[in-house]
Amino acid sequence: MIILLASLTNLFYEINHTQFILVVTQVEEEHMANIELVFQAGAGLVLFIFLAWVFSENRKQVNFKSVFLGLAIQILLAVVVTKFGFVRSGFLWIGEGVMALKDATVAGTSFVFGYLGGGDTPYSAKEGSNSFIFAFQALPMVIVISALAMLLFHWRILPFIVKLFSGVFQKGLGIGGALGVCAAAKIFLGQTEAPLLVRPYLGKFTRSELFTVMTAGMATTSISIMVLYAMILEGTIPDPIAHILTASIISVPAAITISRILIPQVGEDTSGHLVVPYQFSGSMEAITQGTSDGMRLYINILAMLIVFLAIVAIANSLLGLLPSIDGEPMSLQLLLGYILAPLAWFIGIPWSEAIPAGALLGKKTILNEIVAFVGLAALPAGVLSVKSGIIMTYALAGFANLSSIGIQIGGIGTMVPERKQEIISLGIKALIAGTIASCMSAAIIGILYSIG
Hints:
The protein has one domain. It is globular, with a radius of gyration of 24 Å. It contains 18 helices and no strands. The protein is an all-alpha fold. The longest helix has about 55 residues. It starts with a helix and ends with a helix.
């Protein structure tokens, strides 16, 4: 009996000892992977800044003090937003508000579109079927948010928030008042709406300041569209609206920093203040104007999605005629994945996940970020880890795509027609700078999530 008890005790010890070793080994492997990711993303930040300096129009005029200050402010904002409990709670509260708006929107869409808009179905749905219709249930949120944003503008709430951020950017980054207002507004407004707030000063902007306006437009998104992103990513990453809003905030200093490396500021900064471009007689007129603007955006997004997804299907059909790679048919996603995999690696994506991540970056650049977010949400489980999904959310949350060049030429070029040719010449460079700024935000978030 004693021998049996001794044997069982020894057996339990061996099992527990083996489990302990396995747990320790797993923890050590995760720790080493996190350290590797930190160095990986850190190298990416250095590389992005170095490449911007290499392709600068005037390398001798680059103010490296401002560069490091801009990077420090971006990191500080990221730390405050992601690590401070009360700030995170505020963002989670915003997320709950977005979900409330979603339910409110469904109340409208279900009345207008019936079961297509989220109402009760007049039939028994087949098990496993999906009754969700993007055009009638998710996309109408753009119209609602556009109307609310215009109402907040009329009530002077949005201009007040813009002024707060403008002061931070002016003092922290040493930019002029007019550019500070435009950069701050870009957190919430579109790439043609934000410049409206400083329209009288656009003609006086230096080449560097004009380029910064364009880069900030490419690197960030708008409040109307970020809610749509969050709805697309619901269930893919935790608290998507918090991450997307954070991305729009921390990408602004990155856009200013990178744009001022590529085209350094020469001469005096343009001073100026916020100009209210909208004059409404009352709240109802503001809501009406916002609804009208949102409807145009709704139609535009629908059209772009139909056309761009069709283009992807056509491209994949043609590429499918080529020989397969490792048994996988050639496709646009696969081709872009191989090309942009190194870029994905430099923002902190493990190499085993770099090809699908690179494909998403390619979709964003060639098509648009909505198509890329749809692609991210549609990835099979396990293709990207949760951490990689969060990193990619920051890399994709911006307007840096080919169609945005045309939008900026048409929008900003109309505000300052005398500088339209200059805007055209800066288009591709602004796209590249905006992409770099978004990737810097992604790399910083990857580092923060890796160090805990």
